[in-house]
Write a structure and sequence with these properties.
The structure holds two protein chains of two kinds. By secondary structure, chain A is an alpha/beta fold. Chain A contains nine helices and eleven strands. In chain A, the strands form two sheets. In chain A, strands 3, 5, 6, 7, 8, 9, 10 and 11 form an eight-stranded mixed sheet that branches. In chain A, strands 1-2 form a two-stranded antiparallel ribbon. The chains are: A alpha/beta, B alpha/beta. Chains A and B meet through strand 4, helix 4, helix 5, helix 6 and strand 10 of A and helix 7, helix 8, helix 9, helix 10 and helix 11 of B. Strand 4 of chain A pairs antiparallel with strand 9 of chain B, so a sheet runs across the interface. The structure holds zinc ion (ZN). Zinc ion binds next to loops of chain A.
Amino acid sequence: MAIGQSETPARSPNGARPKRGVPEGLWLACPGCSATVFAKETERCMNCCPECDYHMYVSARDRIRHVLDDGTFEEWDAELLPADPLGFIDKKRYIDRLASEQARTGMRDAALTGCGMIRARRVAFGVTDSAFIMGSMGSVVGERLTRLVERATEQDLPLVIISGSGGGARMHEGILSLMQMAKISAALARFSEMGGLFISVLTNPTMGGVAASFASLGDLVYAEPKALIGFAGPRTIEATIRIELPEGFQTSEFLLEHGYIDRIVRRPDLKSEIARTIDYCGK
Amino acid sequence: MASEAFRLDFEEPIYALEKRVRQLEATEPKSAQLHEELRAKRRELADVTRTVYSQLDAWQIVRVARYPDRPKFSDYTNMVFDEFVELHGDKFYGDDRALQTGFAKLNEYKILLVGHQKGKTLKERNECYFGCAHPEGYRKAMAKMRLAAKFKMPIICLIDTPGAYPGIGAEERGQAQVIAESMFTMSLLPVPIICVVIGEGGSGGALGIGVGDRVGVLQFAYYSVISPEGCAGILWKSHKFAEDAARALRLTSDNLLELGAVDDVIEEPLGAAHRNPHQMATRLKIYLLRTLRELLEIPEEELLARRYARFRRIGHFIEEAPACDLD
Ligand SMILES: [Zn+2]
């Protein structure tokens, strides 16, 4: 359920990794086509490669800017902080790992939740950031998303969650992380019973316990192009079946072909697509 | 008695005494002195077994949970239930052998039984992928559980899996989606659901049939977000650190109870379930009957409210106003 920190790095489905030696800041190497592209230019295209349209990493804060109307985001449950319920130590203490991730990302944990407007439609909105311990779900992510779903139920708001998690359920919080999957799924079941609309957007990567809970439970499931999405990590599968995985395995396009997502949506179109879906569903 | 091929190293002192007791038992005629020695050896065996099993570390417990002679789903269908009428197939793709479903009788109660099957012979083990279910297994379980709810039958799930199967076909047929949907579905079914981890509670594959009103765990079973080997491979960069990972993950029954992930621990016989499967089955049966009677008293609406609350409260975090430097 927990997928390796090392298993799903920010790589493209064709395996290209960012090249080293490119001056940082001004220019960056596209993980999709390896072209050296002007950073400002990619920023203008919402971190999509101007050459090949590869969808690069986007932080949770930038997601909010991309999808919600300017200045409308109101954060909920920002006071939730991760703890170390197991006293978990691997090569590093979890408590220290949390501190360094918080310092590096400026986030308290891997999810931001709240409400805001999408083209003047009020929504409950959540996003996980794959930079914070691989976007993995521990108690805080689980609790924030569950409260988000509960508020959406109470206030009859459409719910939008954008997932980016290579980490699945967070190992460092053990069984408590696993149980967050059941907790959110149960909250979503109640929301659905009340007629709530949930739009789930999958981005690169969405794996393990995140894919196997809320991310797959949207009334509509959309995905960004060429995102890595699946249950088991590709390396785990390779180690189990001992054959090379087919090209394009566990990509958005693979999932579309097998019938598990409704639409592949390019990042610049996401906001309009969400607004249109809300209108169709009459929410 | 343990098969020679699968002996647990920490059980060596137990094996030695078991062997001696068997020798003494077989000796005829028995002198008064021999009777005395037999009594003493039996006492010693009980003491040593108790000592060994009271000192197991997390990794040793994982090995007991995986022990091939440990009673499995198919043993309990015989020993706990009066009848098991298997219902096959998800009516969509196939009939997963790793996840079995069927009608069963628990004394006077007619129930739906769902459980992971690991298999005993090599052939069986291969057929059911060593207890690793494919999406069609979870689809089958969901379909039969809906059937049970329709006809007001309580549901009992016996969990024993290393994890849901990681393979190409499993991904193609929506492994992530079916596990999510199964939890979603189980949270709303208006009949009592009892889940018991009888061996391995391997992450999402276990939780996929693990959303119930009461969740129990056998004393030497484990339940974890990831296998110790998988965790070691990722965080320690080597499977060799599985022992450290097992300890760090807090996956043993007493840890699980403390963390609020399970409601009850069902005590195993002296020297664990594999040493006395019948006694284990009796204890499991008593637990299931007692729990079922309690749950059947609860009105449907309250049952669902309590089930929601049971999972809703799990988690551990701090609530504190954001400091300026973080925002
Ligand atoms: Zn590119």
